[in-house]
């Protein structure tokens, strides 16, 4: 190359770089312009609402995280009249709109409003008070008596609330948990005969201690023990899956613990991210299990005579159950399980039944792609009720107190994504009415009837438990 051509090439470098930079700028989606084009008509040119809600009031009714907002824009909320934009905008354009909304929130200093001290429902005005605060990712609550509650914190702590006061020190010597992803210390359950035997039950994610590698396999584990002098003692291992079935994934562990009137203990293990394994009865994940309170296997469990099946199994095809409750009159087991995107389910669990995951589902993958076109197949149970779009169901209990007499034996269902508690009226195994009774205080991880008849709601974020009572 001649000296002249080299100098010419060098001279053009800045021009080439400037052109490339200008093209990059033009290629970036303009979130503000896209918002005005697609969103302003309903949500207002200034994002302060119109035909649809404000986006700058600190309240996100259908999921506050960026991923939830992206999905809502992309796939819509059809039952509320919000269309999908997956054919109108690319994923990058949708992300640009979300970023624009977040930027406006930051500019205006938007914060989430405080939880109202009063909530109105169709039947009651409810008073809301903080029961326990400054918790780290609380997961579950149960009661020893009217004056003593146990609360799990997912990082691995078991906390005590005594006479309305959160004790400063967690219970010592509780099991070591794997606190990664969705794992950690999950459910706590007090034995129905606690006054006689003193047993407390825990569910947690357990890693193989002797694993020589970067990522230890893990699975859900069930133990029971006693609390003496603020210390976990007399621990007994009730359920541990075979080590070869452990998985290195860190999500979909389940897990709730409930007891029926006949001395059985039920718990659920999520599919652990391997949905196809939920149909394999030789594996523990994606199933409901039934054992006795001492870990023994009931002789009439439905897969006892199947040579390859796990003997503790009670049902198959359950994606990720995070709500379990026993009907106070019938003793039936009801569960709520997370669907993928859409298809959260309420199921009446029966011995040996297959609930379909992931062969049939009403949901889609989180990116919108199809899991299966099938919603029905012979031999697979239909949900008693399902939510589409998903509300991220979590925590379940039948109301059994006397404070809310109109709600006796109705089902309380929590929701993480929608930050709410729903009340379901069930007749002949069908949901005939649903209402939202509490909303907007945070992600609901658990909901429970207390021995005093109040409703206790465990909120992941912020880390607290609130107590709901009728207006005096």
CATH homologous superfamily identity of the largest domain: TolB, C-terminal domain
What strand order characterises the main sheet?
1-2-25-24-23
Biggest β-sheet strands, sense, barrel: 5 strands, antiparallel
Report the CATH C-level class of the largest domain. Mainly Beta
Oligomer: single chain
How much beta, percentage-wise?
A: 25-35%
Rg calc: 25 Å
Secondary-structure arrangement, i.e. CATH architecture of the largest domain: 6 Propeller
DSSP strand count: 25
* Mean pLDDT level: 93
Number of DSSP helical runs: 6
Shape: globular
Low-confidence stretches: 2-13, 20-25
Classify the secondary structure makeup into a structural class. alpha+beta
What helical percentage do the residues reach? Answer: 10-25%
What is the number of domains?
2
Query: In angstroms, what separates the terminal alpha carbons?
Result: 92 Å
CATH fold field value of the largest domain: Neuraminidase
